[in-house]
Fold this sequence. Notes:
Structural class: mainly alpha
Number of domains: 2
Distance between the termini: 66 Å
Largest sheet: none
Number of helices: 8
Order of helices and strands: HHHHHHHH
Number of strands: 0
Amino acid sequence: MSEDRMNHPDEWSLQEYLDDVLADEDRERLELHLAQCDDCTAKYASLKYLYSEMERLPDEPLTHDISARVIRSIALKEDRKPYLYRVLMAQLAAAIIVFTAIWPRISQELVNRYSLVQLLEPLQMFEDLSAQGILFVREFLNWIHIQWIATLSMPAMDWPITGLPLALAVGGMTLLWLLGNGLLLREPVNGHIHR
């Protein structure tokens, strides 16, 4: 390709020239090029013909106008936002209440099954590092555990269900919660929420 071929204007420049939005300096350069280049003049004439034919096309009314449906869909989404916020806050509050209610039983089960000393047994592999440091850490963690039990745990209640029935009840509540969210957060079909 010659250097002259690389200086040909692109189609965007021709369209800007046709729309009369090209800067004066660029317009003068393009007009000079069109006077010298038959290929670009033919391309410009073709583009000008295309635009003139497009302007002759009649304006026909739309057979299927969806603008009202789009506007209604946007309005529905905006209307649902405060409602969903309230639903999520209510679910969060319910989860906190349920967790608070079952926490005494969970903490009691953890204390009965595991002690911090058992959890720290892997640290005995590193006894040669610092026996006194490990004892200090154990005492400190035991002190934190005792303080935690004394201040954060609620009195243990005698639950009528334990083990597998409790796990099934919590699993059922979780499944019900997920199902409720699926119904509430489902996108509307044709602007209407089908239930």
